[in-house]
Amino acid sequence: xTQRTKYFQLRLTEEEYAxxxxxxxxxxxxxxxxxxxxxxxSNINVKQKLRLLNELGCYxxxxxxxxxxxxxxxxxxxxxxxxxSVAGLLPPSYISEVLMPEIxxxxxTLDALRRELHIxxxxxxxx
Length: 127
Fold this sequence. Notes:
Layout: H1 14-23, H2 30-42, H3 44-86, H4 92-125
Helix pairs in contact: 3-4
């Protein structure tokens, strides 16, 4: 092993110092923590994965928001179709022949999206 002979000095606030000590507690030394952090952060693959994970987080939030809107619209549509059916203004066959197949296709599409997102997220989190 090469002997370490270079010295580096860093000025920190009390809060930064406390944070550094806390984060490095599971390491042999603060120096080892900094070396490991430098090595990992300097790695281009890690930077790309961090960027990808941030982008995935944004996408997940948008996906969740869109799903909420879709779910609300779907609930309103099914409720209205049911009201019309009960009132005799919509044949019951419409629900079973038109509405339910569309709902099934939508669910299949959402499940496929979830599976694909899971695969992408799984590959992005492998370090």
